[in-house]
Amino acid sequence: MSDYDLVIRGGTIVDGTGGSEREGDLAIGNGKIAAIGDVGGNGAEEIDASCCIVTPGFVDIHTHYDGQCIWSEELSPSSSHGVTTVAMGNCGVGFAPCRKEDQALLINVMEGVEDIPGVVMTEGLPWDWESFPEYLDRVDAGKRDIDVAAYLPHSPLRVFVMGERGAAQEPATDNDLAKMRALAKEAIEAGALGFATSRLSIHKTADGGSIPTFDADVKELSEICSGMSDAGSGTFQIVLDAFSGWDKEYPVIEKVMAASGRPATFTLASGNDGPPRWRKVLDMIEQSRSEGHQVTAQVLPRPIGLIAGLELTVHPFVLCPSWQKIAGLPITEQVKAMRDPDLRKALLSEDFAQGHPFNELARNWDWMFPLDDPPNYAPPKETSMAGQAAARGCTPQEVAYDRILETDGNGLFLAALGNYENASLESAHEMLSHPQCVPALGDGGAHYGAICDASYSTYLLTQYVRDGNGLSFSLPEAVHMLSAKTAQAAGFHDRGVLKVGAKADINVINLDKLKLHLPEIVRDLPAGGRRLHQQATGYDATIVSGEIIRRFDQSTGARPGKLVRGAQAG
Description:
Elements lengths: L3 E10 L8 E8 L2 E6 L5 E6 L4 E4 L1 E3 L7 H4 L11 E6 L14 H12 L3 H7 L7 H9 L6 E7 H9 L1 H4 L6 H17 L3 E5 L19 H14 L3 E5 L6 H15 L3 E4 L10 H13 L4 E5 L4 E5 L22 H8 L2 H9 L7 H4 L7 E4 L13 H8 L3 H11 L5 E7 L7 H7 L4 E3 L16 H11 L8 H15 L16 E4 L5 E2 L3 E3 L8 E3 L2 E2 L1 E6 L2 E5 L2 E2 L15
Parallel strand pairs: 1-4, 1-5, 6-7, 7-8, 8-9, 9-10, 10-11, 11-12, 12-16
Antiparallel strand pairs: 1-2, 2-3, 5-17, 13-15, 14-15, 17-22, 18-21, 19-20, 22-23, 23-24
């Protein structure tokens, strides 16, 4: 008879606390860590972790798996990159609460904001819930590889209470506010992690309109968050409209925290040029902390951006009028048509027609780079479309056009929209070094045709730890950021650290062999929908609640993932 369910032997243990790594074994029993150090006895299964690091499972508190967690048992790409717990419902978009007559409206919001095709949501979701607690029960009943937690999203809540008035951004009445506050309390008591919203101006519905929560009154946000106070738990997550200026936007957080007493977390990024406004935001955070408020900024460890390509949602010619002549053709036929001199001349000379803001970002030539294998997310500035055009004496459009033809339409582009200040990762590194900033914004489960950032944990370990390149974190620092620091920011105090009695969410990683692969297009969504996916090499094992869900970068088929109902005590 075995002494333990699983023993990991001879690894370098990096426990998530930020303390020094040490050599040793780790034993697991009944889904918990049973022993650490020189472990005697034997396990029913054993893993040789020599030449590997042993870390806590990683936590990503900014994802959108609200639909994928229902239609799929694997929450990839996140689970392919050592992530064992995710929080969804971010940005105030989701699928509950929802009456039957409002399903199309929520699909329109989600399709526009998160780039999930409408048919995928229509065919992939059973829509057998109305209230948010019923939605949580539906999630709880499913099987999946990793744990999920959910914020109560503002857009569905507003529409549920206000109907068309909510969708049209009309002000909430006192009666509306009372209903939303009560529903927030109900959601937290049922297991919501918190309440999430967005004020970002480029968050648009599929038909180009503003989302229901855009520019919502502070009174409304405060009342809803006071519903969390009534329940005694919950975090306020918000995407502020940095385009309106931090002096205008950050006070929204301060006012809501002051009114509700609840902690807050928000998205922070640097611009690529101009003054470093983000440093002032760090000062604002410190001021909030000095006043007794708990606030955390979420930072992507690499450039925030889009991936563009002919098979994807955006590319450099998608809104050109002449593109519409070939938009519905297979890629091979599109490329054949693009070789025609007359079409080439038209596409190179035409301006973009009006469309979704994300499309226009695919023509920011100064910050648009080729993305090849292995993917370089910190490319030299001269390799941008504008940089190459200057060297060749032609236009950036020509550089992009030629790349599409040279790769037979398969070439990808990285449109770096932020966090790449002066073509350097220095701003991202400095933000991540701040005590109140955590790595996040993987956005897994959304932006299926334009973003694939759920791999940021692998990027952080390779770019900032193993490879350094002048901007580095120690291994214990990086693991702490990816596990305990992020977990605690969301109220997950039962995970993120390797210690006896803790939940056995663990990674065994061959850091020397860890490699990030080029994003690929897969067609595994409902209705045959396509999405970007990204693989990694070097994860020898990922373990959730003591069960090995991935071995040598492949799924084992184990499905121990659960719904995490709200904040968790240590």
